[in-house]
Amino acid sequence: MHTTILITGATGTVGQEVVKHLAMLDSDVRIRAGVHSVIKGENLKRLPDVEIVEMDFEDQDSLHAAFTHVDKVFLITPFEEDQVQMAKTLVDEAKRTGVKHIVRLSALGADAEPGIQLGRWHREIEKYIEDSGISYTFLRPASFMQNFVTYSDKSIKEEGRFYQSKGEGKVAYIDTRDIAAVAVEALIGEGHEGKIYELTGPEALSNDDVAQIISEVTGKQVAYVDVPVQEAKLVMKEQGVPEKLADALVELDEVYKAGYSNEVNDEVQYVTGKKPHSFKQFVADYKECFV
Questions:
Q1: Integer Rg of the chain from CA
Q2: How do residues 63-79 score in pLDDT, each as one tens digit?
Q3: What distance lies between CA 126 and its chain's CA centroid?
Q4: A Pfam family for this UniProt protein (predicted)?
Q5: Residue-wise pLDDT tens digits, 15-57
């Protein structure tokens, strides 16, 4: 009997990797990719056995259609002001339609006390899932390596620089392909119910380390420019980022700067049986994004 898995946020950095990993499996899994608009999901149509469904958080009918006959869900919500309510809406629909298991993409440090705002948002969602009665697995990854592609590729290409506010703090960056590998194992494997996996890469790096690795791998001299947090917040606001979200991102950078995200563990290898990608390998695989 087949298993239908819904991936919400399927066009996002992690979501699309989960769809790709599932599509490569030789198993009786039906993949349902939830997208905000069908146009954005065009690239996913090229993958075998992927069904694209449009999901509108304000349209109950679209959510019900997306969740109908779904067995398991990989739950991702966008980084928006109402992300907690969005997640609760999805969990409520999962409960109504009889979903058996939810794998939730959370964040490292979600259970820290008192923690930071971003962590508190994620923990509130986790608690809501726990209280729903649906079986769950929580993934709490460190900062993504792919963020250097998403947010810094243009300045690296054009200026040979990237701008952040992490000071000299080291971060155990993780490749989203490794997060996806853990997610897939949690979705189709056994024994992951009620588990929380804190996921890191194999090494903790400062942004000066990152700049050096990009320079070595690409042959292009790259430098890190440390930006004062308040200046970074001003730029975010000029770019239209809501103040509440800008404050949360500034607070996160302060955590990185203080070195609270520098611990490395072997959870990826424990779950998947494979070592996580190094940052050097990540840059080699995404080299065209930087030069």
A1: 19
A2: 999 999 999 999 999 99
A3: 15
A4: NmrA
A5: 999 999 999 987 789 999 999 877 777 778 788 889 999 998 8
Torsion angle of the four alpha carbons 17, 141, 105, 7, in this order, in degrees rounded to the nearest 10: 10
| Nearest residue to 5 (alpha-carbon basis) of 76, 84, 61, 78 | 76
Tokens 């960056």 belong to residue = 173
- For 196, counting Cβ atoms within 10 Å of its Cβ (0-12 exposed, 13-18 middle, 19+ buried), the class is middle
Give the number of other Cβ atoms within 10 Å of residue 112's Cβ. 13
CATH 3.40.50.720: does it fit domain 3-144+175-199+263-276?
Answer: yes
DSSP string, 108-169: TTTT-SS--HHHHHHHHHHHHHHHHT-EEEEEEE--BTTHHHHTTHHHHHHHSEEEES-TT-
Burial class of residue 141 in the structure, from the number of CB atoms within 10 Å of its CB (0-12 exposed, 13-18 middle, 19+ buried): buried
Decide: pTM greater than 0.85. Answer: yes
Task: Report the C-alpha gap between 56 and 59 in whole angstroms.
Answer: 5
